[in-house]
Amino acid sequence: MRRGIVATAVAASLALAASACGGSSGESSDGPVTITWWDTSNATNEAPTYQALVKEFEKANKDIKVKYVNVPFDQAQNKFDTAAGASGAPDVLRAEVGWTPAFAQKGFLAPLDDTEALEEKDAFQPNLIKQAEFDGKTYGVPFVTDTLALVYNKALFEKAGVTEAPTTWDDLKADAATIKDKTGVDGYWGSTAAYYAEPFLFGEGTDTVDVENEKITITSPEAKKGLTTWQGLFDGKGLHKADTTADAYAHIQDAFVNGKVAAIIQGPWEITNFYKGSAFADKNNLGIATVPAGSTGEAGAPTGGHNLSIYAGSDEAHQEASAKFVKFMTSADTQAQIALKNATLPTRDDAYTDEVKADPAIAGYQTVLPAAQPRPELPEYSSLWGPMDQELPKIASGAETLDDGLATLETAFADLLPEYSK
């Protein structure tokens, strides 16, 4: 008989289980088990697909009912943190990958390595499993994934005589000037947001922090070199100046989908919106390439997405039912259905069927996933982007020097990671 979810996780959270098991209230001992799932997807565009899949799961599993709750993404982390520490936490959570180690560290998530949820662990991309791990155990099953890519307008590139996507930042800079000369359209528009600056750090073989050595590296020569390159892409022929307004994201996206800029860095969460723009009425006009490489020759972008995690405070019956549900929702067939309905990226290769890959954007993003870098096993990692989102716009606009901005970031990171050296 297959082992249940690790008993020690249940015992450790016994006090929580007594009051916080989502869906256990009011159930009869011989009736179906009711589990609660907090889904954090877009309530309009994505949630209907998940709600339909819940009904499909219930039809195939008469002994399990799923209470579906859509929780706004920007509220879900705090809500779960509060609920898991008190009462009312859901049995299953759709957790952004950065939340997984943070909640695991607090003991809120059950390890899944010996459960039905992870019976097909080898089917998932290894870098995605890695960012569901904490302290040697796996606390989530990869549900949907994303990364950044260079997305470009093939027609504008062709009109300018640029025959292939740039593979280095220097190439991008040169191509942007050519595109401006030949088409009158800017060749590239960069973002000042922290997440979009990560590829420039990776391209120099560094990151904001060195987790293995517990060291803050944002002021290292490598980080400074990468961000100098990033800063240089806001000034020059065919390079759009930095937009530091609150609506910068929307401005960049709108310009790209309507053919007013030839290339941007963007993620697959915008696939559906790409196709709504006049420039991509023909879906095949959308080009997708790995982000350009830095001076090390390395190219890569951060891996994002969501895991499905199970609450450690639920009793064993609910954890068993949750594991069955998580396995269903992350199966190859289900992931293919989700990709076709929501235009999201599956986390396992066997879900990229011919039908799924008929969408040129999904097929394109699949090719860049191998270069994506998983987030380090550091609960505070995603929190580092907050200070960066404050400082990078100042640097990009010239309101602050790069050296001053990086010094400010180093201080802010030290406050978040007091055990790390500078």
Short description, anyone?
The protein is an alpha+beta fold. 41% of the residues lie in helices and 13% in strands.
Q: Overview of this structure, please?
A:
The chain is α+β, with helices and mostly antiparallel strands. It has 2 domains: 33-145 and 304-373, Periplasmic binding protein-like II (D-Maltodextrin-Binding Protein, domain 2, 3-Layer(aba) Sandwich), CATH 3.40.190.10; 149-302 and 377-416, D-Maltodextrin-Binding Protein, domain 2 (3-Layer(aba) Sandwich), CATH 3.40.190. The chain has helices at residues 7-12, 14-20, 47-60, 73-84, 99-105, 126-130, 154-159, 169-183, 194-202, 221-232, 248-257, 271-276, 316-329, 332-342, 360-368, 385-397, 402-416; strands spanning 33-39, 64-70, 92-96, 133-134, 137-138, 141-146, 149-153, 209-210, 215-216, 263-266, 286-289, 304-310. A 5-stranded mixed beta sheet has the order 2-1-3-12-6. A 3-stranded antiparallel beta sheet has the order 10-7-11. The protein has a two-stranded antiparallel sheet with strand order 4-5. Helix 3 (47-60) links the parallel strand 1 and strand 2 (64-70). Helix 16 (385-397) runs antiparallel to helix 17 (402-416). This is Arabinogalactan oligomer/maltooligosaccharide transport system substrate-binding protein. Pfam families: SBP_bac_1. One of its GO terms (molecular function) is maltose binding.
